[in-house]
TrEMBL record:
Its main location: cytoplasm. It is found in: Cytoplasm. Transmembrane segments: none annotated. Coiled coil: none annotated. Residues 1-23 are annotated as: Disordered. The keyword Transmembrane helix does not apply. This is Cytochrome c oxidase assembly protein COX19. Residues 30-64 form the CHCH domain. Keywords: Cytoplasm, Disulfide bond. Belongs to the COX19 family. The keyword Cytoplasm applies. Pfam families: CHCH.
Length: 93
C-alpha cells in the first residue's frame, strides 16, 4: 500500500513581515549610532528608557539610508523628542 503525497499542487509564496524586519547594515553606515546606543544601554544597566535619544538617532540613520521604512518619529514613540513637540512646549510658556 502506498500513499501518494501531492507536494506539487500547493505553492507557498513567502512574503516579508510588514514590521519588525529590515535589511542588515552590511556597509556599517549606521554603526556609530548603533555603538553609541549600545554604550548607553551598557552604562544604564540596559534600561532603554534612559537611551531614547540615542535610539531615535539610530532609527533616523536607518530611515535616511533606506535600511528601514520611513515612519514618523511620533509613530515610533518619540513624540516628545521631535522638533515639533519641542516647539509646542515652548509655545505654551
Amino acid at each position: 500500500m502506498s500513499t501518494a503525497m501531492n507536494f506539487g499542487t500547493k505553492t507557498f509564496k513567502p512574503r516579508p513581515p510588514d514590521k519588525g524586519s529590515f535589511p542588515l547594515d552590511h556597509l556599517g553606515e549606521c554603526k556609530p549610532f548603533k555603538e553609541k546606543f549600545m554604550k548607553c544601554l551598557r552604562e544604564n544597566t540596559f534600561q532603554s528608557s534612559l537611551c531614547r535619544e540615542e535610539s531615535k538617532e539610530y532609527l533616523e540613520c536607518r530611515m535616511e539610508r533606506q535600511l528601514m521604512a520611513k515612519e514618523p518619529l511620533e509613530k515610533l514613540g518619540f513624540r516628545d523628542l521631535t522638533d515639533d513637540a519641542a516647539t509646542e512646549e515652548q509655545n505654551k510658556f
